[in-house]
Specification:
745 residues; alpha/beta; Rossmann fold; Immunoglobulin-like; six-stranded mixed β-sheet; 21 helices; 26 strands; globular; binds beta-D-glucopyranose; Glyco_hydro_3_C; Glycoside hydrolase family 3 C-terminal domain-containing protein; Glyco_hydro_3_AS; Glyco_hydro_3_N; glycosidase
């Protein structure tokens, strides 16, 4: 018997009280046991397992079983590599299975709308295709081990300020094309066991109580057949939430929510079948998890640490490398400066905090590679209480170390307390004492390479002043070793920015509309999120979306695009490694449509792929742009529509580094719009039947001059006139009605 059938049978044997109890947690992390339905554990996530040991609630964040801390999403996404991400997912699934966890609470795929969101380190990108493709790979990996995932936070949860109440006020097209598109892709491609609804409201409605979001869109349109779980404490009105399609309310409410559900059924306010349905979904999930063969082998700490190191190395973005400053020679006299080299900042704070099995620091690994003589000076203190004399002394020591070296490697970043789940940042600058240190260090040694650690994006006003910048964002427990791997060229840097580095916070798309006030945040920038904003408005940026260098060089040639039988677009380009080391290039495919009927960003990412090439090796990279990804959300018909026309296809190394441009002609989808009295003359003349009917009517009633006029000015002037107003040109009301009837017949 299938699991859903067994679950339905098990639920049929339960009392109403038991069924209601199934739809909420037994405690902070486990579901309720009832009849044949076992209790199972759901826990964080996402970049490692956070299974708490003693204190059961969020107050015990720091006390979880040791687990491998893989690179958080901010870094992993930058690999642009679904194959790598899937392997990390497999490892996460294994660790969850060893600890008997049913569902790992991730991935978080919300869009980085503003660089200030305190939780951006937990999300992949400012782009929905990157978030969707990488998120789907993560889900596939974890679920391949019989462990479920929870796609979160559904939806439009793009800030921490007032996160349990704020309404994300976003227009329907933007909601679909930017904020829901990634979720839709993961649901369709990877079928996560669960989706976690977010805390916030969307256009005034709590996500947990929104039947449109949780049922019409998620289930009816996207075909989701799993379980909807609340974010922890997201449910305000349990009965409304159940009716909207929220199956499992977490954590436990000590029976209060269950009693409300039972009362609502008894008083006839909701149909008992709603309870049956959600209870059966919980039962299915629990039975599916319980059916997994127990994993008794101990965690292979070394193997997972090695994978964490590989993933971290592939998540480091080489932003700048001039005068051959990198990779470092093992024979060079190296000065390492910056407290983060010794005390790495490797993950973000909040519910995703992992207790790592071990922790690599960069200094140890740089010394392991280049010898114990590598000089080190912390340069600044990570204690905010350090006094001025300490700061001056630390800086002086750092300058002395840098001055005596061939190259200075300076570790800068955001101190841990400045960013976390639960609150947003107030700016994007690095701490002033670090910037002052940088000025002095590069004054003492112009061959200064900056290595960055941060969850949210930081401004880099010094980008023009130093020859080398490595962006490590947050690399997980093996980031220190991985940083050394990249610094010395043992690993070729191949990650790319999944988020634009803006010049100033004032330039960012949500500036002025973030984080809102009095319970509302207006998504005023609409579709123009991330690079869509900077590129469409042609604003300067410090480093564009998709940017990242390698130690080798690549030549791109022969871009082509053809429309396949199913309407997808096949894009090909040949990439050649023209340097003398093996490297990986990330091929990005952007599309645009000039003269579109709807406003569009100048360029939008639609596909990407990674290719590894030995020196002088050449390979043709083939990527598919799905026709569905070319669709815009048409608010007239509430549907995805592909507009017909000549699409520009840019194959590119970043959103601003186009390596080839080709065009394809696509047939559009039919949009069946009824003609009404309010239809404009332009719409009427674009409609084959209505146009003829109107011309005939005008000819009959003496207004033929308007329709028949070859006079372009007149036609354009009248184009926006509603059909119904044609009475002012002498067309009787009855004739207008006849046109409407004929058009819609
Ligand atoms: C977070 C979720 C997390 C849950 C359980 C919430 O506060 O928003 O991401 O999975 O807690 O810890």
């Amino acid at each position: 018997m299938s699991i859903p059938d067994r679950a339905a049978d098990a639920v049929a044997a339960l009392t109403l009280d038991q069924k209601a109890a199934l739809t909420s947690g037994a405690d902070f992390w486990t579901t309720t046991q009832a009849g044949d339905v076992p209790s199972v554990m759901l826990t964080d996530g996402p970049h490692g397992l956070r299974k708490q040991r003693r204190s059961a609630d969020h107050l015990g964040l720091h006390d979880s079983v040791p687990a491998t801390c893989f690179p958080p999403a901010v870094a992993l996404g930058a690999s642009f590599d679904p194959e790598l991400v899937e392997r990390v997912g497999v490892a996460l699934g294994i660790e969850s299975a060893i600890e008997d966890v049913a569902v790992l609470l991730g991935p978080g795929i919300n869009i980085k709308r503003s660089p200030l969101c305190g939780r951006n380190f937990e999300y992949f990108s400012e782009d929905p295709v990157v978030s969707g493709v990488i998120g789907a790979a993560w889900v596939r990996g974890v679920q391949s081990q019989g462990v479920g995932t929870s796609l979160k936070h559904f939806a439009a949860n793009n800030q921490e300020t007032d996160r349990l109440r704020v309404s994300s006020d976003v227009d329907p097209r933007t909601l679909r094309e930017i904020y829901l598109r990634g979720f839709q892709r993961v649901v369709a491609d990877a079928r996560p066991w669960t989706v976690m609804c977010s805390y916030n409201r969307i256009n005034g409605v709590h996500a947990s109580e929104d039947p449109w979001l949780l049922t019409s869109v998620l289930r009816d349109e996207w075909g989701f057949d799993g379980l909807v779980v609340s974010d922890w404490g997201a449910v305000r009105d349990r009965v409304a939430a159940l009716a909207a399609g929220l199956d499992l309310d977490m954590p436990s409410s000590d029976g209060r929510a269950d009693a409300e559900v039972v009362a609502a059924v008894k008083e006839g306010r909701i149909d008992e079948r709603l309870v049956d349905r959600s209870a059966a979904r919980v039962a299915s999930m629990a039975m599916r998890a319980a059916g997994r063969a127990p994993v008794t082998a101990p965690l292979d700490v070394d193997a997972h640490h090695a994978l964490a190191r590989e993933a971290a190395g592939r998540s480091i973005v080489l932003l700048k490398n001039s005068d051959g400053v990198l990779p470092l020679s093992r024979d060079a006299r190296i000065a390492v400066v910056g407290a983060f080299a010794e005390h790495p900042r490797f993950q973000g704070a909040g519910s995703s905090l992992i207790n790592p099995t071990r922790l690599d620091d960069a200094l140890t690994h740089i010394r392991a590679a280049a010898g114990p003589d590598v000089a080190f000076a912390p340069g600044f203190s990570l204690e905010s209480t350090a006094d001025e004399s300490t700061r001056v002394r630390l800086r002086a020591e750092a300058v002395a170390a840098a001055a005596g070296a061939d190259v200075a490697v300076l570790f800068l970043g955001l101190p841990a307390p400045t960013e976390s789940e639960g609150f947003d940042r107030t700016g994007i600058d690095l701490p002033a004492d670090q910037l002052a240190l940088l000025d002095e260090v590069r004054g003492a040694n112009p061959r200064t390479v900056v290595v960055l650690s941060h969850g949210g994006v930081v401004a880099l006003p010094f980008a023009g002043d130093v020859p080398g910048i490595l962006d490590g964002s947050l690399l997980g427990q093996a980031g220190g070793a991985a940083t050394a791997d990249v610094l010395f060229g043992d690993v070729d840097p191949s990650a790319r920015l999944t988020e634009t580095v803006p010049v100033r916070i004032e330039d960012t798309p949500a500036f002025g509309n973030f984080p809102g006030e009095y319970g509302h945040v207006r998504y005023g920038e609409g579709l123009l999120v991330g690079y869509r904003w900077y590129d469409t408005r042609d604003l300067p940026v410090t480093f564009p979306f998709g940017h990242g260098l390698s130690y080798t060089t690549f030549d791109w040639s022969g871009a082509s695009a053809t429309v396949a039988g199913n309407g997808d677009v096949d894009v090909r380009v040949t990439v050649t490694n023209t340097g003398d080391r093996t490297g990986r290039e990330v091929v990005q495919v952007y599309t645009g449509l000039e003269d579109s009927a709807v406003s569009r960003p100048v360029r939008e990412l639609k596909a990407f792929g990674v290719v590894e090439l030995a020196p002088r090796e050449s390979r043709e990279v083939a990527l598919t742009v799905r026709r569905s990804d070319l669709a815009y959300w048409d608010v007239r018909v509430d549907a995805w529509i592909v507009e017909g026309g000549r699409y520009r296809i840019d194959v590119a190394a970043s959103s601003r580094d186009l390596r080839g441009t080709v065009e394809v002609d696509l047939d559009g989808d039919e949009v069946d719009l009824p003609i009404a009295r309010d239809s404009s003359l332009a719409e009427v003349f674009a409609h084959p039947v209505a146009a003829d009917a109107l011309r005939a009517a005008l000819a009959r009633h003496g207004g033929g001059g308007i329709a028949g006029s070859g006079d372009e000015d007149v036609r354009m002037m009248l184009a926006s006139f509603p059909l119904g107003r044609m009475s002012m040109f002498g067309l009787p009301g009855a004739a207008i009605d006849e046109v409407v009837v004929a058009a819609n017949r």
